[in-house]
UniProtKB/TrEMBL annotation:
Residues 1-180 form the BPL/LPL catalytic domain. It comes from Proteinivorax hydrogeniformans. Its EC number is 6.3.4.15. This is Biotin--[acetyl-CoA-carboxylase] ligase. Pfam families: BPL_LplA_LipB. The keyword Ligase applies. PANTHER family: BIOTIN PROTEIN LIGASE, BIOTIN--PROTEIN LIGASE.
């Protein structure tokens, strides 16, 4: 990863840009960075605050040789890489399944994975990572201030973007290599479990139209989350949005 790096000043969305490159057959491991985004995208149609010079906005092209279900493991893999990279700075980063990183119960990073299928088989995956680096508290809009944080706010001093990038690419490479060479993501999943923000909490997960309530348990090797409901039935939730925890 990172053999081909594209640095942009401004772009609509690094994910959209990387998608165009992937269609033009750019190789696996191509990384797109932008200083700012005008249409940063989040999951579920939300937008992503992309202030100039404050955050890290990047997207990576992956081409794992797997079917769709296994390819989706790229999300927990990336969460494990971001979490490990931030923990090296002595930050108490935690993973909020399926795709957010939190510090002090506030969101510091979001991951957006977009799989492109061709004849029902994945042809590439774009993994977008947005990390709040040097935002001050009041850089966030009022409605985000109580639920978002930045590395600067947590460390009490500014952080060098390149240091974070270096660390992040190191862990992404490491976890991805295991995924490709050994075909499993055991080390990524164990990081997800070790630093799981939800484990042991009563949570509400919105999954399509219904809401599942129960005690959050382990994240499985399929990337799903085990939830035990009131009567003790254990459900294996493939994906969803945790709306209360
Ligand atoms: C989320 O929390 O909903 C996911 C947010 C993902 C944001 C990143 S920033 C870089 C990349 N480009 C985008 O447009 N989105 C992702």
């Amino acid at each position: 990863l990172g053999k081909k790096i594209i640095n942009l000043k401004a772009v609509d969305s690094t994910n959209s840009y990387a998608q165009k490159l992937a269609k033009q057959r750019y190789p696996e491991g191509t990384v797109v960075f932008a200083e700012s985004q005008t249409k940063g995208r989040g999951r579920l149609g939300k937008s992503w605050l992309s202030l100039e010079e404050k955050g890290l906005y990047m997207s990576v092209i992956f081409r794992p040789p797997y079917k769709a279900a296994k390819t989706q493991l790229i999300t927990p893999l990336t969460a494990a890489a971001v979490c490990s990279a931030l923990r090296d700075f002595k930050l108490d980063a935690m993973i909020k399944w399926p795709n957010d990183i939190y510090i002090s119960e506030k969101k510091v990073c979001g991951i957006l994975s977009e799989i492109s299928l061709k004849a029902n088989k994945p042809s590439y995956v774009i993994v977008g990572i947005g990390i709040n680096l040097n935002h001050k508290k009041d850089d966030f809009p009022i409605d985000l201030q109580h639920k978002s944080t930045s590395i600067r706010a947590e460390m009490g001093c500014p952080i060098d973007k390149q240091e974070v990038v270096k660390n992040l690419l190191f862990y992404l490479n490491m976890f991805y290599e295991e995924f490709i060479v050994k075909g499993n993501i055991n080390s990524s999943i164990s990081v997800c479990n070790k630093y799981s923000l939800l484990k042991g909490k009563i949570i509400n997960v919105k999954n399509k139209e219904h809401i599942i309530t129960g005690l959050a348990g382990e994240i499985t090797s399929n990337g799903s989350l085990m939830i035990k409901d009131k009567v003790g039935t254990v459900k294996d939730v493939i994906t969803g949005e945790v709306i209360k925890f």
